[in-house]
């Protein structure tokens, strides 16, 4: 389990094509400190298993399902990636609960810079839109962000200078793909409600309040 608070901006050092999978060699001296074979590290929001470790680098195998479902297949040598180690039990939850299981990909649509922040509009697959709400949480390339505006096929986020400087969202441009993971709590609620799920009415909201 992760929190969506990026610890390090790493770099893809090598990509090995294994036919129905790929092996990435990633530079990340911060996240590899104290790591061992079999540990998990999130790469652009995708939970990967450490295969080998050496000199601040780690290798991880990425199967075809992950390559097809995420934007990892577009990574090449020199690509910058967001890295995060799993949250320690008893640690602070700085972002929100993130599994590292990508639900789909979006695309940077536009960027609107301001003096102290930047608004970024990102396309949203239709089957994920029901899980995204204004002021709710969403993970973009492994970054825990708050939704500013939620549309039928897009959402916007506001990025502070720290996020722009320390993550891939500081350099990605319109047309670039990003990994998306919606709030897992919304999916569990939908599953539990099942076919009897219906929108809340004003009476329901009053009862909850």
UniProtKB/TrEMBL annotation:
InterPro entries: ATP_synth_asu-like_sf (IPR023366), Lumazine-bd (IPR001783), Lumazine-bd_dom (IPR026017), Riboflavin_synthase-like_b-brl (IPR017938). CDD domains: Riboflavin_synthase_like (cd00402). It catalyses: 2 6,7-dimethyl-8-(1-D-ribityl)lumazine + H(+) = 5-amino-6-(D-ribitylamino)uracil + riboflavin. Gene3D superfamilies: 2.40.30.20. Signal peptide: none annotated. Pathway: Cofactor biosynthesis; riboflavin biosynthesis; riboflavin from 2-hydroxy-3-oxobutyl phosphate and 5-amino-6-(D-ribitylamino)uracil: step 2/2. Lumazine-binding repeats lie at residues 1-96, 97-193. Keywords: Repeat, Riboflavin biosynthesis, Transferase. Residues 1-96, 97-193 form the Lumazine-binding domain. Its EC number is 2.5.1.9. Pfam families: Lum_binding. NCBIfam families: PRK09289.1, PRK13020.1, ribE. Catalyzes the dismutation of two molecules of 6,7-dimethyl-8-ribityllumazine, resulting in the formation of riboflavin and 5-amino-6-(D-ribitylamino)uracil. This is Riboflavin synthase. It comes from Streptomyces cuspidosporus.
